[in-house]
């Protein structure tokens, strides 16, 4: 193996740059060339591939986003699109690929690997933390901390005005950010994935809190399938509870910014392990970390097997909110 390429795909996540840097450093250590693919699968199809130099990865460890850029490519979902991408990789003499992204990116990578034989090591990089085969994905810890900081700030206004706040956090198919930020932020109630049906229960819980003298509250809402869903939840609650309320959708603020130390260290471990795995002849696997051990799992055990939130965390949140 002489040339390894690295690509970031799907939503960007804080820590992706630390991972690219780790891949480069591990490549240099092992004496192989590292190539960067710009703009995810779109850039792969276009052949936007370059040899990464030392200065490219200098001073990026603390930066959010991805220096390679990323994309969501419809063309890559077709066999023809993937063939174009494969042709570009072969033309550039790429022997192995490191893919940093989420479940959708892994699906595409799996097809590419099966259709062309190119060995691929996937690294979980998404703030949603919804990927099986790893305790955490790169970016999740940072996103939770950003959401938490926002909740803490909103609490000041909630207390000062005696208001009910609905704070909506990301995670289109999962509730990991809502659960962690809700518990850490002392939320009065957590509306987890697609929880519209919970409005009745939410109203009763809030009424009981306000009857006991609470004069403000923060409800954390997971965006679920419909970003902005907290507006309709707030409307339904307001028709029943006479307290001034506001909605704050944190949105993409959670995806940007400097990665936490946890995300940087995870990115470093997974990046270096991915290079070593390719050099050891592995392919078609995702590298993750479970209970502090680096683990490799075949794509078939990971792709489409969404990680579920820990029921013990759900139970914990119910005790803490008193619900
Ligand atoms: N079924 C599929 N077949 C081939 N390629 C796919 C498939 N699903 C997704 N991809 C490719 O992977 C890209 C990224 O997927 P997606 O938009 O689902 O993000 P993701 O990797 O899951 O990241 P995030 O969790 O941040 O949204 C898609 O734009 C597409 O190019
Ligand atoms: O704005 P985009 O890039 O379509 O991504 C939105 C989605 O991506 C995620 O942030 C994951 O990266 C989801 O939580 C969110 O719903």
Largest sheet: 7 strands, mixed
The helix/strand class is: alpha/beta
CATH architecture of the largest domain: 3-Layer(aba) Sandwich
Order of helices and strands: EHEHEHEHEHEHEHEHEHEEHH
Span between termini: 56 Å
- Counting DSSP E segments of at least 2 residues, the number of strands comes to 11
Strand order of the largest sheet: 3-2-1-4-5-10-11
Hetero groups in this structure are: adenosine-5'-triphosphate, 6-O-phosphono-beta-D-fructofuranose
Mean of pLDDT:
96
Describe the SSE topology.
Layout: E1 3-8, H1 16-30, E2 33-37, H2 40-46, E3 49-51, H3 79-91, E4 96-101, H4 103-116, E5 120-124, H5 140-161, E6 164-169, H6 176-184, E7 189-191, H7 199-211, E8 217-222, H8 229-238, E9 245-249, H9 261-279, E10 285-290, E11 293-298, H10 299-302, H11 311-321
Helix pairs in contact: 1-9, 2-3, 3-4, 5-6, 6-11
The chain binds adenosine-5'-triphosphate and 6-O-phosphono-beta-D-fructofuranose (F6P).
Keywords:
binds 6-O-phosphono-beta-D-fructofuranose, cytoplasm, Rossmann fold, identical protein binding, 11 helices, elongated, binds adenosine-5'-triphosphate, 323 residues, ATP binding, alpha/beta
Describe, in plain words, how this protein is organized in 3D.
This protein has 323 residues and is of the alpha/beta class. The chain has eleven helices and eleven strands. The chain folds into two domains: 181 residues, Rossmann fold, CATH 3.40.50.450; 115 residues, Rossmann fold (3-Layer(aba) Sandwich). The strands form two sheets. Strands 3-2-1-4-5-10-11 form a seven-stranded mixed β-sheet, sandwiched between helices. Strands 7-8-6-9 form a four-stranded parallel β-sheet, with helices on both faces. α7 links the parallel β7 and β8. It is elongated. The model has no long low-confidence stretch (mean pLDDT 96). Bound molecules: adenosine-5'-triphosphate (ATP) and 6-O-phosphono-beta-D-fructofuranose. The site of 6-O-phosphono-beta-D-fructofuranose (F6P) has 9 residues, from loops.
